[in-house]
Specification:
The structure is a single chain. Helices cover 34% and strands 12% of the residues. The chain is α+β, with helices and mostly antiparallel strands and 112 residues long. Strands 1-2-3 form a three-stranded antiparallel sheet. A hairpin with a 4-residue loop joins β2 and β3.
Length: 112
């Protein structure tokens, strides 16, 4: 948790450890109970969400260069938006409806 707080990752792919049958780790003694794994995962996720929000908020009102990729956002078509990645690999969604384009250059769109 201290490393995550200090590093201030803009995002993180996290998952819960679980025993995989047939792996060396599955046979190790003193497995961490599922309840403890869940509680630790929830604390980590909460911390990362807070940091992501704070880091995203720092970019509100600034221009961010984005590499747009077809199919980057799973719901782009349904939401009339496009998606791409900023230089720090942060996912960026932006509106592609005609009214949005008339407002000028696309700026940063912060979303969870």
């Amino acid at each position: 948790m201290r490393v995550v707080e200090k590093a201030r990752f803009v995002s993180a792919y996290t998952f819960q450890y679980s025993v995989r049958p047939g792996t060396p780790a599955a046979t190790l003694p003193d497995q961490v109970p599922k309840q403890v794994v869940q509680e630790r995962y929830e604390r980590l996720t909460e911390l990362q969400e807070r940091i992501s929000g704070e880091e995203n908020a720092k970019l509100i009102g600034t221009a961010v260069e984005v590499l747009v990729a077809s199919g980057e956002g799973r719901r782009d078509g349904a939401n009339q938006r496009m998606s791409g990645r900023a230089e720090d690999y942060r996912l960026v969604h932006f509106d592609v409806r005609p009214a949005a384009r008339s407002r000028g250059p696309v700026m940063w769109s912060v979303s969870k």
